[in-house]
């Protein structure tokens, strides 16, 4: 039902209610029983046990559990226990993160007011909001949280703040007249009030037309229930990697065991060797290292004003191709500011943004001042209910945003509250949405009385018969009118909201009625206001553009305002690159997807539109980051690849639906997070390259030796020790490597890019092949020199394999070349490598460990031989640059 199209009596008739007595208790109870309580459904509750068990469905977790079983079979109980601890810790963290996300709908419910003032059986009573039914008459006063969707039937200067629902920064003035237009978005339904919004000014009465899930808020709740969060690119890539590794592990285990038995090796020995290689093929420390790398990134991001609610989201942000940003509060200050003042046909530009009371006045880029500037701002201050005062060395603003902005501009002209005390307010004619103006009658210290009228220019200009100039009042000519109209058009083209200021001297005994006071007035000036862009945002948007990331503005504000801000931020220079909510309604999903890449601004949109935009971008292959602060943003935040909510102005619903929270509500924090995310992903690729190349070397040295009918170069316990020495600290140190200089000059990775793309797979195979080859070669040479010294030959192979991997780790720091970066700059890596070498020396030279690991002490000359062999893989490819 389009309630906004019906007049008041039609609404009352259709809902079978009475404006004088409301509903009877009997009828209300019947409707409550039929339609249910006025509350939002939370959807199907998920048990805590199911949430916990769900954490073990992850493929890499299953791989870890398999590795645990294999380690246990080998008698490596310490490794098995360590793996189990990692799995449980990861599962507990995931459990608490998911449990917290499930609370988003309950937070949505908290926006409903606990009680409402309802007309029942002819009496106004307070009832729980859950017992409100369609047809109830509700009284609204300033400060009330609206309990249901309401068609207004009475309005006295009623203003409602709807930013949590529509994204608009200013309170909306309401009226009671029917709106005959079809397909009016609820942001433009001025005769309606919606559940969850807040009355900021005035009073009114309305009849309930929708409760619970039948409200606009209910539609958002329904979207939230139906919207499924997307797996992150990192989660998808690690799942793919896990699948590859498990197949390789099973294949190689079977091959080694089969070939070894076929060549006459004992079955038990080959079975243990095969399992050892399977454990080597699966880098069981990988998820732990990924978690640590992400956790350290999260800690760095907290210091930079970004809170990450889900670890994998850090990497996702670095992979983003489009940022869908809310305008108000994110790209702009969320503080109305007077930017221009037009008096006596002279335009003054005013510096200073937001609620900063310091600023200067300029005419054509030259500092200037005028008595009329001071007078006009004094009149604006007198005709206002707002206040700007200093408290504990801080400026405190209170009141309507437009009036606050005018007072801040007055302070810039040194017009303060002290100036106001020289006048006495005699009478006030309140602002009304129909009148579009406010008037106060004041008396100065000489007992002269005059009226100050502030309001919409289209209302006050026709009532102006005089204009104020430096000499005083003079007749307001047609030429004057045309000049003012021209200036209004210029301000409108800059998306400035305009306020006209007029005065009227009053003789003793003059009537104070509106008709008498508000006609034949003297035009003083125009004020042009806007919610200005944040100063630092333009630079951040450019940095994102250089990184191949497109920024799109999505706002509930009007198209002219949105496109003007977009131009100031260099989001677009094209007026056609904007789509409105009404235009979106006429487009199919496919039509939107076809045009989506050419659109920079979406204006006058609803929650359904935001969700549709996100899904259209994803359909075109984009990874989408969506920012938002209101209830209206929650479904799109949840559906996007990474939802980013505002920490200062964001609702709890938005925060619970997001993966990243900006503590300072600043777009530039997103740019910082993107850089961090990209570096984390590159670091993950570095240690995957290192771990897998090392493991490939281990596998190949064993496989080739068996195929060539040589004894096993490594025994199972040595294979496990190699993993312990090389896979731990060095890989972890790669995870905290510093970003390369060009990390924010590279384009985003393709959405379907695999973990082994950009030549990573080739590097792993070639480096791994060489590591295995030089290890096997070192073993064969030592073995053939003295076949009776098998333990010595295995020790040489053992040391060569470990040193080759520890030298190779420095090659992994850059995708280009080992010499592209200073190898000593990552002090953690240097320390990790030295620690691994120390552990290797202990195993070789400490007699009790020699017996366990079947090693012998080797002379210094052998170390020279081993180091030369170990350096071959890195040195050979280190001089060959490759593309990043």
UniProtKB/TrEMBL annotation:
Keyword Cell cycle: no
UniProt cross-references to PROSITE patterns, sorted A to Z: ATPASE_E1_E2
Annotated InterPro entries: ATPase_P-typ_cation-transptr_C, ATPase_P-typ_cation-transptr_N, ATPase_P-typ_cyto_dom_N, ATPase_P-typ_P_site, ATPase_P-typ_TM_dom_sf, ATPase_P-typ_transduc_dom_A_sf, ATPase_P-type_domA, Cation_transp_ATPase_P-type
Location within or outside the cell: Cell membrane
Gene3D superfamilies, sorted: Calcium-transporting ATPase, cytoplasmic domain N, Calcium-transporting ATPase, cytoplasmic transduction domain A, Calcium-transporting ATPase, transmembrane domain, HAD superfamily/HAD-like
Span of domain Cation-transporting P-type ATPase N-terminal: 2-76
Reaction(s) catalysed by this chain's protein: Ca(2+)(in) + ATP + H2O = Ca(2+)(out) + ADP + phosphate + H(+)
Main location class: membrane
Regions crossing the membrane: 48-71, 77-96, 238-262, 274-296, 687-712, 718-736, 764-783, 789-807, 827-847, 863-880
Keywords assigned by UniProt, alphabetized: ATP-binding, Cell membrane, Ion transport, Magnesium, Membrane, Nucleotide-binding, Phosphoprotein, Translocase, Transmembrane, Transmembrane helix, Transport
UniProt GO molecular function: ATP binding; ATP hydrolysis activity; P-type calcium transporter activity
Gene Ontology cellular component list: plasma membrane
Membrane topology: Multi-pass membrane protein
Family affiliation: Belongs to the cation transport ATPase (P-type) (TC 3.A.3) family. Type IIA subfamily.
NCBIfam families according to UniProt: ATPase_P-type
Protein name (database record): Ca2+-transporting ATPase
